Amino acid sequence: MMKTRFPKLVVRRLLAIAWVAAAILASHGAYAFAQSQPSSAVPDARLLTETKDRWATRGFKTRMVWVHGVTLHVAEAGHGDAVLLLHGYPQSGEVWRFVAPELAKTHHIIIPDLRGMGLSEAAVDGYDLGNVAEDIHQLVLSMGISKAKVVGHDWGAAVGAVYAMHYQNEVTRLAFLESALAGAGFEDLWNFSKPNAVFTFVPFLLMGESDSSEDTTTALLKGRESIYLHHLWATFTGDKQAAPFAEWAPYVAAMARPGVARSSSCYYRAVYTTAEQVRTLVALKKLEIPVLAIAGEKGIGVNHEALVRAFASNVRGNIIIPGAGHFLAEERPNEVTAALKTFLAD
């Protein structure tokens, strides 16, 4: 093969142009990464790999998706109509591990970790439900989906309800598990006019930043995530044998991620802003799509239906699962799956 010879001046100029271009690209790339992928956005490789492997055994693929200014961890499997499974505090998409594989046999299942929880980005702000609901809307749009059914638990149910109220032409059904909306009854559960041992964790999460700008909740939780989550498990679980605390290891690892203790607390810190949003939405028009309410006998129980009817006018069913507490999908996965399969099939 013949070698092409260039004059030295040409070579020097080409090299100079190459170095300038490389410097511009490098600086631009670093800037773009800093803007769209802050340090809190991507979990460490070990957590990502462990989570990917767990979901793979269930037939799901996982990825990180950047939408609406935040990076979300998403698990996905199945074909058919789109169904979003939204988790609550202090968990992640792992809460659906017993339910999702069966639903994926007949539906396109999408399981995002909500902003600031699980393996999603511990964003600094944006935790009012109107904004988090927009995260989900933008995620759906990015996947080319025009219609979706939503199943939510705890904060995930609240996010799903606000998402549905904003986009009633996009969300066709909502299953609302063990939750309540701020602005439609949730504040009543925060009543400390008498001893309320169940909700003592709420003031702890509301402490926020101290004068030193260090988040007090974060400082107190650091290295004690397992103790704290075990307390919540023991407090809110009806059936202590159904899903042993050892299976909560992914939640402990996620809570220990930089920024997550604070960011997950921000759902509670933003509740007063959210309440105003919900009161405005409900005053305009209650949610009219079909809604299924599911509660645990030892959770919200008989009080759940009224909390759902406060924002929804088309409640198609109200199920109370015997023996279950708050964590329905882990305590009673078979009953939850059966109820969802029937509701989502219509």
Describe this protein's structure.
The chain has 346 residues and is an alpha/beta fold. It folds into two domains: 8-37; 45-345, 3-Layer(aba) Sandwich (Rossmann fold), CATH 3.40.50. It is built from 14 helices and eight strands. The protein has helices spanning 8-36, 45-57, 100-103, 129-142, 155-166, 201-206, 216-221, 225-236, 249-255, 260-269, 271-284, 304-309, 328-331, 333-345, and strands spanning 61-67, 70-77, 82-86, 108-112, 148-153, 171-177, 291-296, 315-321. Helix 4 (129-142) packs across helix 5. The longest helix has 29 residues, at 8-36. Mean pLDDT is 88; it is low at 1-38.
How do you describe this structure in short?
With 346 residues, the chain is an alpha/beta fold. It is built from 14 helices and 8 strands.
Annotation keywords:
346 residues; alpha/beta; 2 domains; globular; disordered N terminus; eight-stranded mixed sheet
